[in-house]
Amino acid sequence: MPLPHAKRFPSRGAATAAALLALPMVLPAAAQAQQQWPAKPIRFIMPFVPGGGTDFVGRLISPRLSETLGQQVLVENRGGAGGNIGVEIAAKSEPDGYTMVLGTIGNIAVNPALYAKLAVDPLRDLTPVSQTSAVLNVLVVHPSLPVKSVKDIIALAKKNPGKLTYGSSGMGAADHLAGELFNRLVGTELVHVPYKGGGPAMADLVGGNITLSFATMVSVLPHWKSGRLRPIAFTLPDRTPLFPDIPTIGESGVPGFAITNWYGVFFPAKTPRPIIDRMNAAVNGALKVPEIVERHHQAGIIPVGSTPEAFDKFIRAESARFAKLVKEANLKAE
Questions:
Q1: CATH class in words for 37-133+261-328
Q2: Which of 8-12, 69-73, 85-89 has the lowest mean pLDDT?
């Protein structure tokens, strides 16, 4: 006989049956949440401070994304550590489609090789949505520098080793890599000065506190037009029809030089595929809007768009390429 007041526990079989009966109630709830997405505003993290290329692209496309998705897409600048802070925040967020980040060549493809220890692995902890942009980076100098060509810069740098400084938007960013590749290919000793974004780097270059930069065209253009900076050559492999009169560094006496900057949208890993697909369609749609295309071009940025699979393949190839460069140049985050 059972003891008085003894608790009766269900058999293992009964517990399993109860769990199975409850399961159909859970699965439709998750599916329903995906169908209702987005039901609240979406946080769009820019991993650099305002004033640079990522901020420009993020703020340019976010209103169109808001219109398409029916919820606000709110830009949030979280700069620092070469873009790692913003990437980490996104990667550690819930994979529910309400946090995304505009990743770059630096914080996605380069930093895992450059930093000895990162809190997250971008290839593992983020999932690609779409490439947004191919960004034109240009070698630009303060007008007080007595140079008008790449060969002039090389001659001046070799005459004054360790005296010319170049600013970047952060360790591992495209403008940092461009300077390191330049040093490696021509034997100069340009000194790297990292900032928390392209905007602060531009402010110091315009102010004459640094000598030059391999900056995004969106950061350079206002100062170029006002005569406060002098563009010298693009970091691209080929001349761009957007600025056909400006040569590339490669054709200006540094064969083999080419760095193409890029940005793209990422969700945290394990974000449901239906949400990824909806955001992919929204991003690609925004990048085809004539006004957005024109504003990209005016800023020296080429809108791209891609499938998640194509972007993932591209990122992995870029990561392998820059891991090799970082190792060969013995680069380490300071």
A1: alpha beta
A2: 8-12
